[in-house]
Design goal:
The protein is an alpha+beta fold. The protein contains 29 helices and 34 strands. A hairpin with a 5-residue loop joins strand 18 and strand 19.
Length: 893
Amino acid sequence: MTSRQTLSAEARRLAAIVASSDDAIIGKDLDGIVSSWNPGAEGLFGYTAAEMIGQPITRLIPPERQADEERILDRIRRGERVEPFDTQRRTKDGRLIDVSVTVSPIKDPDGRIIGASKVARDISRRKRTDEALRYERDRAQQYLDTAGVILLALDMQGRITLVNRYACNVLGWTAEELLGRDFIDACVPAAIRSETRDKLRTVHAGDDSVVENPIVTRGGDERLIEWRTAYLRDAAGRITGTLSSGSDITDRKRAQAAVREERDRAQRYLDAAEVILLALDVDGRITLINRKGCDVLGRCEAELLGRKWVDTCIPPRHRPLLAERFENLIAGDVSLIENPILGKDGQERMVEWRNRLLRDGAGRIVGTLSSGGDITERHAAIEALRVAEERMRFALQHANVGIWDLDYTTGALRWSETLEGHYGLRPGTFRGTFDAFMELVHPEDRAALREKIEAAMKSGAEFSVRNRSLAPDGKVRWLTGAGRVLLGDDGQPLRGVGISLDVTAHRTLEEQYYQAQKMEAVGRLAGGVAHDFNNLLTVILVYCDLLLDERGEDAPDRPDILEIKKAGATAVSLVRQLLAFSRKQIIEPTLIDLNAVVENMQGMLGRLIGEDVRVVVTLSPDLSKVKADQGQLEQVVMNLAVNARDAMPRGGTLTIETAEVDLDEEYAKGHLGAKPGAYVALTITDTGTGMTPEVQARLFEPFFTTKEVGKGTGLGLATVHGIVAASGGTLGVYSEVGKGTSFKVYLPHAAPDSVATAPFALPKRTPTGSETVLVVDDAEGLRKIARRILEGLGYKVLTAANADEARRAFEQHSAIDVLLTDVVMPGKSGPDLRDELIERRPGLTVIYMSGYTEEAISRHGILKPGIHFLQKPFSAETLGRKIREALARIASP
C-alpha cells in the first residue's frame, strides 16, 4: 500500500471517529468562520452542517461572551492549545446550555496554522448532578450540626475530612480552618501526640473500643473527651478512615476527683479520737470500734466485736432501713447518713455517720469504716431549724427571690442558687467575692451600685437597688433588691445581708405597655388625619375621573390630570398604611390557607427580591386555616420580604416557613397582648446584616427607619404590626448583628364555626338607578361630588352637612330610599342618625362611608353583620355599585 493510500485510510478513519462522536467537533478558520460541522454538533446545537458551514462561530456565542472568542483565536494564532473550560453556548431554539470546550490549532503539512478545531461537550447533566450533590452535602452538614456531641471524620493519615458545629464550638476553630489539617498536630496536647498517633493506628487495625484522651482548644485550654469510633469504608469494603463521636467528660472527671477528695476527708475523721469509729465486714459484723463508740453504746469492745451491727445496736423499727443502707454502702454509696443507735440501757442516741469502703490489696471491697458523731441534742434543734429553713427556702425559690450574705471580715460572699441564676451562673459556680459580684453587674450600672453600697457601709442604713446583671453568655437581666449592712462597735461594717428579685419579665411588659401607649397615641392621630385627608382625596380623585371622561385621548391637559390622579393614588396608599398601622382600617376577613398565600406570591417575590437572594420556602402540610384579610396578609409577607432583601445588599438567603405552634402561658407573660393557644406561625428569616438591640427596641415605631433619606417611610414594619394585631395575632423578632434576622408572625386558628363571606356579585358596568338618596357629610366638597356622581347615574339627591339638616330633609321628603352618611361628624354621629331615622322608617337602606373604622359599625375593625360600608376615598364607579349592592341585599329574601 502506498503512503498516499495509507494517509487516505487514516483520514477516513479519523472522519468516521468525528462523525460518530457524541461531542460537537467543529472546524473553523482563523477568522472564526465554521469550516466543518459533525453530527454531534448538529445534535448539541440544533443547526445542520449546511446552516453553519461558512457562518461565524459567534452565532453560537452569547453576546456577553463573544470577547472571549477573540482572545481564544489570538492564542490559536500563536499556536497555543486552549485547555478545557466551562462556558455557555446558545442553541438554534435560543436556549443557553452549559458546555465544556477545548480548542486546538490546525496546521497544514508545512506546519502553518490554518485554523482551529473546537470540541464542545454538553455538561448540563453534570452541572445538575453537582448542584444536587452540593445540596445533599449541605443538608447532611445541617443534620450533623444539630448534634450535641463532637462529630469528627479522619482519613487514614489522620487529616480532618468532616467536623460539625459542636466540635468547632468546643475546639474554638471554624470548620474551614480545621478541614484538611492533621487532627493530632492541631488539636492534641504536644506531650501525648506520639501516644495518640499510636492509638489511631490501633483503631485502623480494627480496635474500635471506647477511649479517652484530652484535646487542646485554640485558646490553649485542655478538655477531656470520651471517643466512640466507627469505620468508614469504600465500595470494596476497605477502611478509608474513621468517624468518631466525642463527649466532653471534663466536668464528670472533676466530679469524680471531688468524690475522691471527700473519701480522703473521711479518712482524716478516722484518726480523730472524739468520734465513734466503726468498721464492718461485708456481712455487717463489727470488726473495729473505738472507745468513744463503746462509751456511747454502753458496751465493751468484747461484747461488740463479731456481732452484727444492725441486729445489736439499731432500734428494731429502723433495722430494715439500716440493712438496706448497709447494702448501699457496700455497693459504693458513701453518703453522709444519720440514724439512731440503741444503748445497752435501752436509750437511743442520734448519730451522724461518715462512711468509707475498705478494700484489700486486689481492690476488692472487704467492708466499711465509719466515723460517727453524737448529735442527739443538736439533732432536735437542727430538725426544728431545718423545717423552718425548708419553708423559707420553698417560699423564696417559688417567689424567685435570691439571698446574699457578705462577711466583711473575711470578704466571703455567699449566694443562694436562685441568686446565681439571676446572674446567669450554674448552681455552685459563684466565686464568692465582692469583686466577682461586680464583674457580673452590667458595666453601666457598676458605679451607681458601688456608690449605694459604700454609703450603706458607712451609715449602716438599709438600701434598695435596681441594676442589670450581665451573664457570661451575654444575657442581660433586670434585678431589684434590698440590703442592710451591720456595723460593729467601732463603726466598721461586719456583715451585709440582702435579697434580690429578677424583674426582667415585669420590665419587659412595662416597656411593651409604654410602647403600646405610644403606638396607640400615634394611631389616634393617624386615624384623625386620615378621616379628613380621605375626604379631600375622594374629591380630588373623582374630579380627576370626571375631567378624564370629559376629555378625549388627545386632550393637551390629559397628562397633567393623570399625574394629579397618580399622586392622589400614592396618597391613598400612604393613608391606608397609616390606617393599617393604627388598626383603624376596615378589613373583610375570610378563611385563609396561609400556605396558599405564600405559594401564590412565590413568583412575584422572586422577581421582587432579585437574583442575588435565594428564596427557600418550607411549608408545613395540613396547615390550619386562619381568619384574616388576604390583601393584608400579602402586605405583611411583602413588607417583611422587602425588608429582608434590603438587609442583604450583597445577596444571601431568604427563608419563608409555615408551621403549627402552641404558645404557652410563659410566652404570653413576656409578650403584651399575646394569648396562650394554638397558632399558625409564618417565619421569614434572612442572612443579612442583623440589628442592634437599640434598633430592635424601636423597630415597630411609625416613621422610624434606618434607611437612607428617600429610601423608606418608616411605616412598613409599623403597618405589619398593626395588621397582625388587628388579626388577633402577635409578632416576634430575633436578630443578631452580622447573623441575620427572623420575624415570626403568629396568627390564631380560625374558630370552628368561622365561615368565609362571599362577595355580592354585581354587573361589571356602573349601575344606574332612580331612587332618592340623602347624602350626609360635613365636608362640603365631598357632598358636591357625591351629588354630581349620583345625579349622573339617574338618582334624585338630597344633601345635608350634619344630623340636624339630615333630620329636616327627612321630614320634608318622605320618599328617601337610601341614607348615605359619614360616620364621624360634628354633633350626632352617622350611627346615631341612622338609629333615629330607622325608628321612623324601618325599611330605610343605610350606607356608612368613612376613612377609618368606628366601634359603632365594627368590632375590632371588622364589619358587623348587615353593615353596608363605603371606604373613603372612593370612585364614581365604587359609589354607584355600593348603592345598587345595598338596595339589592335589602330586596333579596
